[in-house]
PaREP5ab (Pyrobaculum ferrireducens), 120 residues
Amino acid sequence: MTLETKDIFTATEALHLKNVVRSLLPAPRSRYYTWEIYEKPKNILDKDLEEYTIADAEEINRMADLMETEGREAGRRELVEYSWKLRFFAMVVKVVYIYPKLVRKPRGPQPRGMSTASSG
């Protein structure tokens, strides 16, 4: 059962979150958070949500780490705050899109007498 079927966090809400995070992407100005780093989250945030992978979520978290480091060292509070928005988005992508796909994916042959469907 997914968060969407439980009406906790829907795909529509995830899409809105993605659009907000994309629109708030701060401009780079220095050492850790460069134009190259700026382009990576922009490119990932431009992807369709159904196409996200664990690698994308990990890359988003890595970029958030760089932004937070830059923000703390340069006194740019907006980068620190934005890094947490990115981390939250990465978590939502994992929970709403990636983990449900992993649960549905068959994991090899089932032992005899075992069913893939749960009762109850």
Summary: The mean pLDDT is 81. Residues 5 and 91 are 18 Å apart (CA to CA). The two ends are 12 Å apart (CA to CA). The chain is about 60% helix and 0% strand.
